[in-house]
Write a structure and sequence with these properties.
By secondary structure, this protein is mostly helical. 73% of the residues lie in helices and 5% in strands.
Length: 192
């Protein structure tokens, strides 16, 4: 019982010293990076967006023949409908509708695959971006680097003090210099 009482008294005494100790510590050096703005303004994301759009345009150009062929078959069916039996017309129309639906599905999957390749390329940037942020944080003797939106939420909830240093432009400068471009993975390449 005496030991428990002594431990409680020691804890109370220590608890009384922590606020004094906290007052002597310097405030943490916090910086923020606006990842959304970085994504919109960096050279590498613009380059990757262009590559994804070019791949989609090339894909659409390559699939255009299938659509033109199906359109021609549809015109031919309309012309021939007066000269063929109703069963034959219905069978040809059902086949044509099925191929149109399949072509549309294939087109959608192809474009989604290109988009997934773009996301895979963007994912390869994450370790590079993290290394740049760590290097800058170390060079500036920062204690913590947060996403700007997360920091703003902490400030609005009164869990953090306002006034963190925004290092987005500095990170962007390093990112543009070190990683100005990234390759779009080839079709069928394994994605991380």
């Amino acid at each position: 019982m005496k030991t428990l009482l002594r431990c409680t008294l020691v804890l109370i005494a220590l608890a009384g010293t922590f606020p004094a100790l906290a007052e002597t510590l310097p405030p943490p050096r916090i910086a923020v990076v606006d990842l959304e703005a970085l994504s919109q303004r960096s050279l590498v994301t613009h380059d990757l967006d262009k590559k994804v759009e070019a791949a989609k345009a090339a894909y659409r150009q390559n699939t255009r023949y299938r659509y033109e062929s199906l359109q021609e078959e549809l015109r031919a069916l309309r012309v021939d409908s007066a000269h063929i039996s109703a069963d034959d017309r219905q069978q040809r129309q059902a086949s044509l509708e099925q191929r149109i639906a399949q072509t549309a599905e294939d087109d959608k999957k192809g474009l989604e695959e290109i988009e997934a390749r773009g996301q895979a390329a963007m994912a390869t940037l994450q370790p590079k971006l993290q290394a740049i942020i760590k290097r800058v944080a170390s060079g500036m003797s920062l204690d913590l680097v947060l996403d700007k939106n997360a920091y703003d939420a902490l400030v609005s909830d009164k869990l953090a003090a306002p006034g963190a240093n925004d290092i987005t432009n500095l990170i962007q400068t390093f990112l543009n210099a070190e990683v100005p471009t990234v390759e779009l993975p080839a079709k069928g390449a394994p994605q991380q």
